[in-house]
Amino acid sequence: MATEGSAIRSVDDVRRDVVGVLARFRHGQTMPFSFGDDGVPEAVLLTYDQFEDLGGESKFERRPGVVSAEVVGAELGSMVAAIRAGAFAPVVWGDGGEPEAVIVSTSQYRQLRGDDEPPPGTIDDPTRRVYATEPLPTSRAMTLDEIAAMMGPYSQQVLEEIRQEKREEAEGARREDNSQ
Fold first, then answer.
1. Which of 123, 108, 116 is nearest to 39 (CA)?
2. Residue 5 pLDDT greater than 80, yes or no
């Protein structure tokens, strides 16, 4: 089986290890990850807490109820087939009826995160997306005064109070040096 940080796990890899995936989610050892066949990300597994934190319950109509790991293992192939057909509702699963993990399509995961879809034909793993962080050509450095001005009068006042405290501290230190 592929390990995290390496190639995309296959549907069969995940199907054979749903209990293990759930155990790793419980212990915080696994982040959301994509899986699919032929090295192409088709679906994403994430914790239910992550799904809920990203507003998944309000964004998607999901399969009713909470299915067991055994059901996920038995039906994962048909779930991925539904993803490929564009007719998949997220599946919440866990033990004892407790929601612990969720299966979504890569497109649904992008919607959860608010990411754009990649250009057609681009293979993109949304769980490993890297964002450009370099400044734009039109970017420029901003001064602290400009930032405070953007934040409003209260921020400008606080900035001035901080500066005043620093001036007073410096003046006190100067007086102390001169008295010695």
1. 123
2. no
